[in-house]
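Table S2 (continued). Query chain:
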Amino acid sequence: MKQLPNILSLLRIVISPIFFLMLISENPTLICLSLPLFIIGAISDYLDGWFARRMKAISRFGKFFDPLADKFLTGAAFLAFAVLSIVPLWMVLIIIFRDILTTAMRFMPQSGNQSITTSKPAKIKTFIQMIFIFVILLTITFINCPMNGFNPENLVAFLYSDFVYYSMMVIVVLTLWTLIDYSKQNKRPF
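Corresponding output:
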C-alpha cells in the first residue's frame, strides 16, 4: 500500500501518450474522451501527494517521480496543442527543454544526499499550466461534442485568439523563471 503514490504517478505517465493520441485523433468521440482522461491524470497528481503524506510514504524516489509524471502529462497536452496549431511549437519546445533540464539536474550528484524538491514557483507554474490546459481541453470538447443548438464558431475563434497566445507566452516566461530558480536554489548551471 505504501507504493500507491508511485502507482498513481505511473498511471499519469501511462495515460499521457494515450491522452495525446486521443486528442489529435480527429475522431470526435476520442477527442471528447480526452478531457476526462486528462482530469483523471490531474486528480492522480493531487492524490499521489495526499496519499504519500497520509501514509507517511514520502520518498526520495517519489519526490523525483511525481514531478516527472507531471511533465509527461502537461508535455503531452502542450505537444497536442502544437500539433493542432493552437499554440506555436517553439513555445512547447521551450517548456519541454526546461523540463528535460530540471530532470537532468535531479540526476546530478548532490552533496549530503539531498534530493531536489519541487519549488513553490514550480508548483504555481504547474497549477497555471493545468488551468490553461483544462480551459483549452474544455473548449476543444465543446467544439467536438455535439450539443443541441450549440454553435461552436466562437469557441473555435477563442482557440486561435491572441488571448490563448499571450496566456501561453506567460506560461513560457514562468517556465523559464522556474528553470532559473531551480538553478539558483540548487547551485546548478543550466
